[in-house]
Structures are given as structure tokens and as C-alpha cells.
Amino acid sequence: MTWTPVGSLFATTSTSLTVAPTGTNQLALVAVVAESATVFCNGISGGNCTWTQIGTPFKGTTTAYYVSLWQGVSTASGSATATLAFSGTTPTIRAAGRMFSSSIGAWVVDKRGTIDAAATQTFTASTPTGAGELYFGFAYTVAGNLTAGSTSGYVYALDPNGNALCYDLACTSAAQAPVWAGGTDTIFGVDVLIIEGATLSGAAALSGSGSLSGAGVFAGAAGLSGSGTLSGTATATGFGGGAALSGIGALSGALTGTFTQSAALSGSGTLAATWIGLLQQPPAALAGLGTLGLSGVQLGYPAPLAGQGTLSVLQATGGLVFASPGATIPQAYPGSSQVAVAPPGSSNWIYLGTIGVVTALTYSFVCPGGADKMTCTVMVPATYRTQAFNPGWQVRVTRGGHVVWTGRLDEPVPSAAGWTLTAVGDGQRGTDFLALYTSTWPAAQPDEAVNQAIARGLPWVNPGIGSPAGAWFGQQVDSGAQTLTALLNLVTTRGQLTWYANSQPGGLPGTDISVFPLPSVPNRLLIVSDAAPRTLGGDINTIVIRYQATADTSSSGGTAATYGLVTATSAASVAAHGTIETFIDLSDVGVQSSGAAQAVGNNILAIYKRASFTQPITGHYGDLMTLGGVPIDPGTDQAATCCRAILTDYGYGGEVAPGSPIQFVTGAYEWNDYSQVFTLTPMALWDQSVTGMLSATNTVMTPITAAG
Questions:
Q1: Helix (H, G, I), strand (E, B) or coil at 432
Q2: CA 298 to chain centroid
Q3: SS (H, E, C) 231-243
């Protein structure tokens, strides 16, 4: 098995890249550097190749640009133009690549590394799984000082801009760190190791009685069902699909490379794995009766045992976990959400999976607010304490290649099961900061208070809230007399508005704060298969409002202040359910018209929908979809969405608009990554417990006054 270079180096500084395969099924490797801290290459098309990205875009720290690595498989021969696409406005581009031909026409990615260093001539070391792999590396050079080196086995080249590209067609099993000549330079880029191996496309399976053996790579499922023996003796790579034993029999593998899919035993039998490489894909599992033995394997996912049997994991450390087991099973497996921590103000993230198995992960969101709480257990002894558990460290949860939750660690708690970590979400960090301002109230609010808090360390980004229609400020609140969260609640609650600190992609990079009207157009379909009880308890439809009609001028010989009452009513709700009244007092705000006071009441009524739910709604993958019916990965969703409920096992009725579907704003959302269950709480939730009813009575019956 050998690799052969095809053609010569190709490079571009535009979105067009000329690629010239000489046949089909050749490998093109292309590195794309975007001179931007926010924009990266997110697609390549054309060039007589089919393109896929290797890993995810990498953002440097020494050089704060993005680099991404792509592999193309040629579908035709001849020179053709490939087009580069980007996640935003096209930045300055430095892209270069090389084409290679495999003697057997099959390969698998071993690992991808990154390069981000100053004052050096050496690429960052990457260690192959075994000898004979193809190494490819590319680095953007800041000063263009590098010249071709002399590391044994390597071919060196410089693109027209002085950027460095090198490859080795058959590297040794030692760490690969090619050295360049010339002067030292600040370099930034990416490298990859590719394993060549025979591929049996499709399913390599045995059903019934017999034997199935393979000396290469199984690109599909390598499975045994029934009675028989399945063995694999690949020395360069592992099975690309699931290696599974179901029923009675034995599954063995003497692999020294990468096993990229699930290794599973179900029923009675023995699954023996003596691989010395990397078990990359979840899960390694035993269900029923039997033995699962893993010796010298780097596990990227917890190896669980269900039923009766023995689970043995020797020399296991944390590693890679992918978000999906493949196209045939589109939902993510448990463990797809990864938790990382970093010291305050640092970008040196440490994945907790490299410390121990992470289990019982849940994270949640609230609206108004944002990221709320996170908890997980790291399965290491209680006697083991690492600085990565320190309270105050940053926390982020990533899933499917992007950040879904951010926050700050609380004090960890040791137990026999390991260390339980909890964190407060960035959406709740406004309670840690006071609303300080110097301008005349309410000018420049809430932007001034938010921006001052950000300057003092609040981990938010403010694109500019401005003065949204309906914003309510009430009586002046002294600078520092309330928290930032209280200020945002004051501004939004009586204006049919809400606020949200979004940690997920969309908006500015980071946790960006925004104030916006309560969503009224559904963007989620929610399948509700279990009856979700509802009540009229929270169905307030009439508000009597006291307001100050004229000013008090008695101190100067005039008249005392006068006050009035005005009523805000939801006529449709009254007609459907009868009158349910409450009272609020706005008189301490100062003089206002009856229309202005009534508008406040109308805005409050917009929050209460018929009828309030008495408990949250739970669901699994497939129960939460786009309006087009496409399932959403529930581990990536959050609060502040607008759901249209589809009730599958029971009827509904009594709506304000008869016959209309039930819809509501998501007030709280939690994802349990261990049980694969989401818990969605409508914003109009009514607590029917004794404590809840007493609290609700106090809230409804006691006059509500403006802040201040």
C-alpha cells in the first residue's frame, strides 16, 4: 500500500481554487486560512471533487485567525475550479493544497492537529497510530522567513505568499514534527495523518452460521448475527462501521489502529478487543450476559454495563466523541455534549472528559435570562482534586461543533460516585452585578448599566439594546440600588417584552444580550404525547389599574394630587372563561394618562395565555421539530422559543380563539444528556402545590407597585 503525489502544489488568495485530478478516487487535501477572528471557511464545492471538512475550524491564540482543513475525493479527471465559501463577509484568504493517489483507493483520517506558535521553525508534533501513514501540513507564516527543510522523508514547498506546505508519503510511527530552514517565524495552520487501508463498502455482515473475516477496513457495519465467528486482523486501521455481536458467538479484533464505531455485545458471548489505538465512537457497551474486555484502548465515551456481566476497562483515558453515530441514526448519542472548563479570562479550555468519565450531565435555560444551571458528575475518586474543578472557572458545553451553554463553576462536591460539578449560567450573571449609571434616569438605560457591568467583568456582549417600544422604567431607581437583572426585568415585564443573554450561535460572538417583544410567531412544533394538565388559575383577563391623574401642587397653594382607575381587559378571554380580576398600582410612577396606564395593563395581559399549564412537558428526540417537520437536536435548543403544541393522545379546547392550536413561549428548557430527555416549561406555568398556591395568591391579590 503506497501513496503517490499527483501534480504539484495549488494555492489561491481568492474564493476560486484550481484543482487538477488525473483520475477518480484521488485525495485532495486543502488548508484554508481566513485572516479573521470571526469568519471561517465553511464549504468547498466543485473542482471535480466531493468535499468534506476534517474536524472543525480552529481559531488561533498566537495568531487570532481561523484555519480549516478539507478533503476532496475526485469524481472526474481534469483541471477544474473549486469554490470556497465562508461563514461571513469574505476575508483575506490564504489557501493551499496537494493531491495524492492511493494504491488501493481507500483511506481513513487518523488524526488532525493544529499549529499555532511564535518564533519557531518546527511544526507542532502529531503522532501517528502506526508507520506508513500520509502526513500533510500547512502553515500560514507571518513574516515569510521559512525555507525548505531537510527532515527525512518530507517534501517541502512554499506557496506564492511564502506560506509553508510539506508532506511525507510514508511517515514513521514516531511523533511527526517537520523542521523548516531559514529564520524563525510565527506560524499558524493545521496538519493531518491519513491511514491507507482496504475498504469493503457497504455492510460487511454475517447472518446465520459461518465465519466472516477481514484484513482491512469495513466501511459499513461489520456485524455478526446468530451463531458464528467474526474476526478482524487489520494492522493499519479498524472497522468504519459498527462491530457488533448479537446472539451467541464470539467477536474478536486484533487491531493496532483506529476503531471508529461502536463495539457492542448483546446477548450471550464474548467481545474481546486488544486494539492499541483509539476507540473513537460511542458506545462500547455490554447488554445481557457476557464479557466485554477492553485492553489498552483510549476510550472517547463511557463504557457502560447493563444487565449481568463483567466490564473491564484498562488504561482508559478520555478522547474524542462525535455528535452522531451516522446517517442511519441521526440523533446524537448520550455523551455528545462535552463539558470544558478554563480559568477566568483564559482561553485554555480543558475538557472534563480528559480527566474522567463525565456522566449525569444536565443543563438548562430560562426566559427571561439565558443559560441557567449545569450539573454533571466526573467519575474520579473523591481524593482526587484538580484545579479544573475550582469554583469561579469558566464552563462551556459544546455539542455538534458549537457552544450551547456557558457559565461559571460553583464549589464542587465529592462523593463515592465522583465529583459533582454545578455551574451558574451566564444568563443569571446579571444578579452578580449592580445597575450603576451616571446619566439622568432613564436616559441611556438599560444600555449604560449593561455596558458598565461588562466593563467590570460581566461576560456578556451588548450589540445595543436602545429604547424598544413598550419599555417600562417606572419611578426612578437610584444608581446601584438594584441588580442588573432587576433592571432588565423592570424594563421588560410591563412592556410585553423579554430579555435574553444568548450563549449559542447567532448574533455577536459570545453571550450577547438583547431585549425583544415576546415571541408570537411559532418556530417550533412540539409533540405532546403525555397529557399536560392545564388550569384557569393563572388565566388573569382583567386588570384594574390605579394611576396618578394630576400632580400635587398643594405645597404652593394649589390642589392635591388626584388619582384614577382604568381597566385593561382581554374581551375574548372574558367571553370564554368569565372575569378573573387583579389589581396593580402605578401611582408612584408619577402623572400619566389613563391611556398610558391602560397600555401597561394590556402588555401584562399579553403574557397570560389560556390556559396555564400546571407542570412542565417532557420529550425525546423527534418530539421537537421545525415548522417544516424536521427534528431538532434537543441538546442544542434553549428557552425563548415559541412552540405550537401538537397533542397526539388527547384533545384540547376552550381556547380564547376556538379551534386555534395551543402555542406558548418557552419559559424554561432543560436537557438531560444522560437520559436523553428534554423538559420544557411554558412561560405561563401555574404551580398547584400548596406552597405554590399560597405564593400565587399573594402575588395576585396584593397590589403590585412599580420598582422604586
A1: helix
A2: 24
A3: EECCCCCCCCCCE
And the C-alpha cell for 472?
A: 417600562
What is the rounded distance in angstroms from the CA atom of residue 19 to the CA atom of residue 22? 10
Q: Give pairs for 155-158: CB < 8 Å, separation 24+.
A: 155/5, 156/180, 157/8, 157/9
Q: CB burial class (10 A; 0-12, 13-18, 19+) of residue 288? A: middle
**What is the model's pLDDT at position 243?**
46
pLDDT of 262: 43
The CA angle 273-321-169, to the nearest 5 degrees, is 75
Cell numbers 467590570 correspond to: 456
pLDDT score of 105: 85
Rg (alpha carbons) of the chain, rounded to whole number: 31
Q: For helices 447-455 and 484-493, give the axis angle rounded to 10 degrees.
A: 160
To which residue does cell 458464528 refer? Answer: 228
Please give the Cα distance from 193 to 168 (Å, whole number).
10
* CA-closest candidate to residue 149, choices 182, 181, 184: 181
Amino acid at 13: T
H-helix or E-strand spanning residue 34: strand 27-34
Whole-prediction pTM value? 0.50
| Closest residue by Cα to residue 511 from 440, 631, 408 | 408
CB neighbour class for 650 (10 Å; exposed up to 12, middle 13-18, buried from 19)? exposed
User: Could you tell me if 574 and 541 are in contact, meaning their C-beta atoms sit under 8 angstroms apart?
Assistant: yes
SS3 for 301-326 is: CCCCEEECCEEEEECCCCCCCCCCCC
Whole-number Å distance between alpha carbons of 428 and 408 = 10
Which segments in the chain show pLDDT lower than 70?
1, 198-335, 529-539, 606-614, 647-661, 684-708
Q: Enumerate the domain spans of the chain.
A: 3-196, 199-314, 338-428, 433-517, 524-535+611-682, 542-605
Cell 397526539 maps to which residue?
Answer: 648
Local structure of residue 572 (DSSP, 8 states): H
Cα(594)–Cα(607) distance, rounded to whole angstroms? 21
Q: Tell me the pLDDT tens digit for each residue of 105-159.
A: 888 888 999 999 999 999 999 999 888 999 999 999 988 889 999 999 999 999 9
Place of cell 476510550: 299
pLDDT tens digits, residue range 47-77?
999 999 998 999 999 999 999 999 999 999 9
Q: What is the DSSP letter of 603?
A: H
Q: Show the 3-state SS of 135-149.
A: EEEEEEECCCCEECC
Classify 686 as helix, strand or coil. coil
CA atoms within 13 A on the CB side of 373: 9
Q: Counting every residue, how long is the chain? A: 708
Phi, psi dihedrals of residue 587, rounded to the nearest 5°: -65, -25
**Closest-CA residue to 239 (of 291, 203, 194):** 203
Q: What is the dihedral of CA 343, 345, 348, 353, to 10 degrees?
A: 50
Give the CA diameter of the chain: 108
Return d(Cα 705, Cα 493) in angstroms, integer. 12
H-type alpha helices, 158-262: none
632 C-beta neighbours (distance < 10 Å), count: 18
Alpha carbon distance 255, 238 (integer Å): 6
Mention every residue, 6+ apart, whose C-beta is less than 8 A from residue 317: 298, 299, 354
pLDDT at 660: 54
Tell me how far apart the alpha carbons of residues 416 and 419 are, in angstroms, rounded to a whole number. Answer: 8
Decide: 418 and 412 in contact? Cβ < 8 Å: no
